[in-house]
Structures are given as C-alpha cells and as structure tokens.
Amino acid sequence: MRVILCGFGVVGQSLVKLFNSRSEDLYAQYGLKPRVVGVCDSKGSAVDTSGLELEKLVEVKKKFGTVKNYGKTKNNMSGIDMIRNLDADVVIETTASNYKDAEPGMSHIITAMKRRMHVVSVNKGPLALAFPSLMELATYNQVIFKFSGTVGGGTPILDYAKNSLRGERITSFAGILNGTTNYILSNMTNGLSFDSALKDAKNRGYVEADESLDLDGLDAAAKLVILANWIMGMKVTLPDIDCKGIRNVTVNDIRNASKNNCAIKLIASCNRELVVKPKEVSVDDPLCVNGTLNAIAFTSEHSGTQTIIGKGAGGMETASSILRDLLDIRQEIAKI
Ligand SMILES: NC(=O)c1ccc[n+]([C@@H]2O[C@H](COP(=O)([O-])OP(=O)(O)OC[C@H]3O[C@@H](n4cnc5c(N)ncnc54)[C@H](OP(=O)(O)O)[C@@H]3O)[C@@H](O)[C@H]2O)c1
After folding, report:
1. pLDDT at residue 277, rounded to an integer
2. How many CA atoms lie within 13 A of 24 on its CB side?
3. Domain of 263: which CATH number?
4. Is the model's pTM score more than 0.70?
C-alpha cells in the first residue's frame, strides 16, 4: 500500500515508528505492507517512490527539524505537489487542525480524493468545516474516507457507535471530548484557580498552541460536528454548534456543584440541539471522568445508555487509530 503522509509532527512520527516496529506482524497478520513514498512538514518534503527508510526519516526530522534534509532531490515539494505528482493509494492527513479555513489539510484531502486516492485524516479542521461535502466528494470519486482518530484519539468512539451499535437507533449522546479542559476543570475541583490550572496544563504540554481551541470549546465542537454527521446522519458544520467554553467557570461554580454531589464538565451533547457548554454532572455518573480522560455516553432506543471511557489523545494512541483505518481500507480494497 503506497502512502503519502502529510504532516510529520507528534502523530505523523508516531505512525512511522508504529509502521517500523509492527512491519512483520502487520504483513503476516493482515497482509498490510505500507510503503511511505512521500512525507511533508511545513518546511519541505522527502520523496522516494520505492519507499522511504522510516528510521532515517525520524532521525533526519530530529536532527534538522524537517524531513527536507532526507535526500538531495524533490525536497521542496509541498503536500499538494506530492499528492498531484506521486502515485499513491492512500493519503494520510496529519497537519495541524485549524477552524478558519482548515488549510492545508482541506486542499490535501480534496486533491487526494479528486486523484482517486483513499484518505485517512486525524485533522479535524476539514471535517468540522465541510463534513457533508467531503463525504459527497469521497462518494463521487469512489474513494474511502476514514477519520477514526479525530474523536477520542485511540479510543474507538466512532467505530463503537457506528459498528458495535449497528441496527440500533441512537437517540442522543453526551460526552467529555476535550482532555485539556477536563484536566483544568478537574484541577479546579481539587482547589486550583483557573489561571493556575491552565498554567499547569500548559507546562505539561496539554494545551494547543492556540489555547482558544481548547478553552473556548472549539475542539470539542469540531468533534461534535463529526459525531453528529457520522452517527446521527445530520448534515452540519461548525457554525451549527451552540458553543461556550470554560473561561467563565469560577471556583465558586465548582464549589456550588460539589454541594449537589456534582462536578462541572465541558459537555458536548446532541439531543435535538448540538451544544458544547460547561454543565454539572453527578460524580456518580460514569461520564464524570477526571484528568485528561474522555468519556461519551450513547443512549439508544433498545439498549439503554452505554459509556465509553478512554484516553482522548496521544501520539501513539492516535497513530493506532490511523492503523485501524488503514486495515479497514486494505480489507475494502481486497473485496473489489
Ligand atoms: N496529538 C494528538 O494526540 C492528536 C489526537 C487526535 C487528533 N490530532 C490531530 O492530528 C493532527 C496532528 O497532530 P500533532 O499532534 O501531530 O500536531 P503537530 O505535532 O503540531 O504536527 C503537525 C504537523 O503538521 C505540519 N504542518 C503544518 N503546516 C504544514 C503545511 N503547510 N504543510 C505541510 N505540513 C505542515 C507541521 O510541520 P512542522 O513539523 O514543520 O512544524 C507538523 O509536522 C492535528 O490536526 C491534531 O488536531 C492529534
């Protein structure tokens, strides 16, 4: 399977390490042999149509801060150039999420689909801004579009709702979908002020470079868009979400909640309306997880409410979701 990898940050590098460490067993167990023919970061690219050496790629990135020093030629190709000019089966999109224009991820995905390449994206931006049209484009071009890692990192939230609950009618869901705000709110429950809890989260590297993505609820809202489209069949984008972050949550609010045996959590919910906002949740509710954990409760017509809990982020965890998507694509292709 020939792969173009756009973005070589935490997730991109974890994926390449995973390919390397699992290569024998991926082939033996699943017949999957990924051949990475091109990788780009913000400064340049590395290309080899016979397959890049994965260990060397990681070493070069570590030493020079970019993959462009991998080889002497074709190191100035952008992601779009690689997708337009190289032959590949799958494009994996791991560039940074943004919710203004979703670039460069949006163009990577659209160009790949038009070239009839399957796409795996962990980048939420393009899905948050254009989920319905990207699905249509994938269908029109007869390509597979997978995005397991966009919600829950390595925890298979989308797959659970779509596949394990197949045949059921999910009537509503609610979840904690952003680990950073959950970490901050948990620490406030333990007595820290908002500013100290934010500082601690930043020191631990939990906060996005643009802190507003976490604090103002945009990351959770993007995930809600993806869930609403994929699980509930709604055709919505980011402006359809009623979104409020955690900046105005005070220690007093948290104290008052605890008098009711509750904690304040940033909840993304779909129950007729699509809302992200801080809410009181009973500490006895399985949804009430602490630290950076994510949790989501699906309520369905016949099987009641089920809650999934797991780590919502992490390089290796998210890379493992990409691997799941690739295995699904491999299986689909094998059927044709
Ligand atoms: N980290 C997680 O736990 C996690 C979990 C779920 C989803 N995600 C999503 O996965 C994506 C990647 O996350 P990450 O943690 O790996 O982020 P990251 O470490 O910031 O990596 C982003 C990568 O994108 C590259 N990039 C930025 N602009 C580019 C451009 N114009 N052309 C080509 N490459 C460009 C960066 O290049 P440089 O290396 O040169 O800066 C970097 O390699 C994001 O969309 C994120 O929201 C992450």
Report:
1. 98
2. 1
3. 3.30.360.10
4. yes
pLDDT tens-digit readout, 182-206: 999 999 999 999 999 999 999 998 9
**Do 164 and 306 belong together in one domain?**
yes
Quote the domain boundaries for residue 190: 157-311
Given the CA of residue 123, which atom of ligand 1 is nearest to it?
45
Amino acid in the structure at residue 273: E
Ligand 1 site residues, Cβ closer than 6 angstroms:
6-12, 40-43, 66, 79, 94-97, 104, 122-124, 149, 153, 313-315, 318
CA of 324 to the centre of ligand 1 (A): 19
- DSSP label at residue 322: H
- Let me know if 235 is a catalytic residue: no
> Helices then strands (H, E): number in the chain?
12, 12
Which atom of ligand 1 has the smallest separation from the CA of 321? 6
Does pLDDT of 139 surpass 80?
yes
List Cβ neighbours of 229 (8 Å cut-off, separation of 6 or more): 127, 131, 132, 135, 235, 236
Distance 53 CA to ligand 1 centre (A): 21
How many CB atoms lie under 10 A from the CB of residue 24? 8
Total domain count for the chain? 2
Question: Using the 8-state DSSP alphabet, how is residue 191 labeled?
Answer: T
**Of the listed 223, 244, 277, 279, which one is catalytic?**
223
Cα-to-centroid distance, 24 and ligand 1 (Å)? 27
